[in-house]
Amino acid sequence: MMNVKECYEMFGGNYEEIMRLLMTEARVIKYLLKFRKDTCMQELTKALKEERYEDAFRYAHTLKGVSTNLMMERLVVSSCELTEALRHNETDVEDLYNNVKEDYDLIIEAIRCLEEE
């Protein structure tokens, strides 16, 4: 049985800070479920595959912002690194993307575990 605190621990988030900001676990869950339904990561993947780096930058930047707002600290770091590389017109970003994908997938798995409760 997973609760919100365990969910945040699983994906390397800051539970205390998100609770300070949103005040109730119900609100946190509401936004975690919205995050899970968001297509930003899929669009980022597609943009990179199609070498649309300007679009990829926008999606990475959006992911960085959302993860910052939800206190998803590991994803904040990895998406920030990808965003900055793309901002500087780097195109060899596969390793940075893989870090983002790994962090994102861990968050999605944690949210799924939370939903099953």
TrEMBL record:
One of its GO terms (biological process) is phosphorelay signal transduction system. Pfam families: Hpt. InterPro entries: HPT_dom_sf, Sig_transdc_His_kin_Hpt_dom. It comes from the Bacteria. Residues 39-103 form the HPt domain. Gene3D superfamilies: HPT domain. This is HPt domain-containing protein. It comes from Coprobacillus cateniformis.
